Amino acid sequence: TDRYAIVGNPVAQAKSPQIHAEFARQLGHDLQYLRLEAPVTPGGFAATVDAFRAQGGRGVNVTAPFKLDAVAYATEASDAARLAGAANALTFDGARVRADNFDGVGLVNDLLRNQRFELAGRRLLILGAGGAARGALLPLLQQRPAEIVIANRTAARALALAHECGAGAVRGCGLDELGGSAFDLVFNATSASLSDELPAVPAAVFAGARLAYEMAYGRGLTPFLRLARDAGVPRLADGLGMLLEQAAEVFNWWRGVRPDTAALRRQWAVPLV
Ligand code: ATR
Q1: Ligand 1 centroid vs 189 CA: distance in angstroms?
Q2: How far apart are CA 125 and CA 224, in angstroms?
Q3: Which of 44, 61, 78, 98 has the largest CB neighbor count within 10 A?
Q4: Ligand 1 binding pocket includes 157 (Cβ within 6 Å)
Q5: Residue 129 in contact with ligand 1 by CB distance below 6 A
Q6: Domain of life here (predicted)?
């Protein structure tokens, strides 16, 4: 039996154990998937992962607040992990530890495969400039949108993140500077929904948008999605598809075969009405 785990703090709410158990069942793989709560102390993440490796662990998923620790722990990091400054998965091979980040590719796969939403040539607005926005940027840019605007409550963070992407299709601004711009797709990558708050975004940004995408999942119609719906956006999505596609990519990275997410997407979908 191959052993994997998710490391976080807290970790009780994590869906990964159920997702990977379902993928393993679907594909007939024999694996065990644990929850590991690492202490939030200096070295706490490393000690927890060291112990898991000593017990034969093959890889881990990493969630808050350890995604940066995971990059530091690795001996090799993918471009996605380095650019996001964060890893959501590690794989162990003797002394070698590889880090990668599949959150962004999970988002893009959900949009292209499940939502059938073409990104090439589209105008995209990302609300937020924290870890979630950072992880999404590069994979979205690779789809060649016409432009990406990053708008953040603290404008300086959005400007800095846009600047890191170099000259080109990415622009940063404050939430209060959005008046008058139009977008095809608006993402909420702020953590506001986790406390049932609404990023202070003018309803006008939704004019003409065809999809509003909430990166949080399992929270139903968040204040962001409600604002989008009331502004007439015809399609709403939450982050369930992104979570499941991310997990499918990780499973493939670990096990060499890509599970299908359709059953779990149906089973866990929360009505957005
Ligand atoms: P995460 O990893 O979830 O992205 P983070 O790095 O702490 O977490 O970033 C949180 C993001 O949500 C930031 O963009 C934050 O805006 P600030 O940079 O101005 O702090 C944004 N955010 C959190 N609560 C918000 C709220 N109530 N309204 C608007 N933006 C909010």
Answers
A1: 8
A2: 13
A3: 61
A4: yes
A5: yes
A6: Bacteria
Tell me whether strands 2-8 and 89-93 are parallel, antiparallel or unpaired: unpaired
CATH class as words, domain 104-240: alpha beta
In whole angstroms, how large is the CA radius of gyration of the chain?
19
Task: Please work out whether the CB of residue 176 comes within 6 Å of at least one atom of ligand 1.
Answer: no
Catalytic one of 58, 67, 98, 123: 67
80 phi-psi bin (left φ>0, alpha ψ -120 to 50, beta other): alpha
Q: What are 178-194's pLDDT values in tens digits?
A: 988 899 999 999 999 88
The boundaries of every CATH 3.40.50.720 domain in the chain are 104-240
Look up residue 4 and give its amino acid.
Y
Binding residues for NADP(+): 79, 128-132, 152-157, 215, 239
Average pLDDT over residues 22-38: 98
Q: Is residue 73 within 8 Å of residue 52, measured between CB atoms?
A: no
150-180 pLDDT, tens digit per residue, is: 999 999 999 999 999 887 889 999 999 998 8
Candidate from 55-59, 104-108, 161-165, 221-225 with smallest mean pLDDT: 161-165
Mean pLDDT of the region 4-15: 96
Q: Is 67 a catalytic residue?
A: yes
What is residue 166's predicted lDDT score, i.e. its pLDDT? Answer: 81
Q: Is the CB of 101 under 6 A from ligand 1?
A: no
Atom of ligand 1 nearest to the CA of 129: 14
Give domain 2-101's CATH number out of 3.40.50.300, 3.40.50.10860, 3.30.70.270, 1.10.760.10. 3.40.50.10860
Binding-site sequence positions for shikimate: 63, 88, 103, 217, 246
Ligand 1 atom with least separation from CA of 197: 27
Q: Quick check: CB of 191 below 6 Å from ligand 1? A: yes
